[in-house]
Amino acid sequence: MDTQPTLENLMIERKLITPEDLARIRAHARSSEVTFQKAAMDLKLATRDTIEELVLSQFDYPTLDAKEHRYSGKLALAYEPMSAYGKALRRLRSNLLRKIPGGRDASIAVLGPARSEQVSSVAANLAIALSQLGQSTLLVDSNLSKPILADWFRHEEEVGLVSALLNHMHPSEVITRKEGFQDLSLVPSGLVPPNPTDALNKHALTALNSYVSEHFDMRIFNTPPLSEVTSAELIADVCGNAICVIEEGRSSYDQLHALVHTLRKQGTRVLGAIVRK
Fold this sequence. Notes:
Blueprint (H helix, E strand, L loop, with lengths): L6 H7 L5 H14 L3 H7 L5 H11 L7 H4 L6 H4 L4 H16 L6 E6 L4 H16 L5 E5 L7 H4 L8 H5 L10 E2 L6 E4 L14 H12 L4 E5 L8 H9 L1 E7 L5 H13 L3 E8 L1
Parallel strand pairs: 1-5, 1-6, 2-4, 2-5, 6-7
Antiparallel strand pairs: 3-4
Helix pairs in contact: 2-3, 7-8, 11-12
């Protein structure tokens, strides 16, 4: 049976420390009654960032090199998966997977009484978290009023969701695999029409969701702000599942209660919620 390499072994294998350094760290850990990680940092033989990266590699939380990929820092799960936000997203991931039969195969709309960027952040980072489990994950930017995901993922092509919804292109032609991630693909919004609600009709969305459901384990839909259009609820209806984003200091209990009531009334399952500060 394969055994997971220890942090000590990883540091030796990657030539981050010498055998002599290892002996010093162990001795300091024993005498000071601290962990190996703390001892290595105390002796300045490893930085906190190095320790976190090694720990993440043990638990299959791959991190990206900001210099190599140049994606936006908004993608916290890609660069700082051990941050408080990263941990909150993984808790949300665990909770929603327990509610999905088999732990995979679901389309999920991310929406809520929060600012557009907060909803987009949860959608993007949740998609990354799911892909880190080895599930083929598709992130769809259906927020046509304030699309932002193409910018965060440094996606320059103008084709996207709108092209597929208007039957100008086949869905397969607007899906792009994103480099650096374990199994993550993106459908950006594409060129947005003057009236975004014209493109977001239920028939077109249902057809697109049906196609991507055959090719991806998990499908995450970023949605428009609830305060501007009703498309978010329509997208949730097509997906059949939703996650609510609440913004501390801006979202009220009454707003959340009304949203959950609407979603459940139309038959959408609310899988969970997350509070953004």
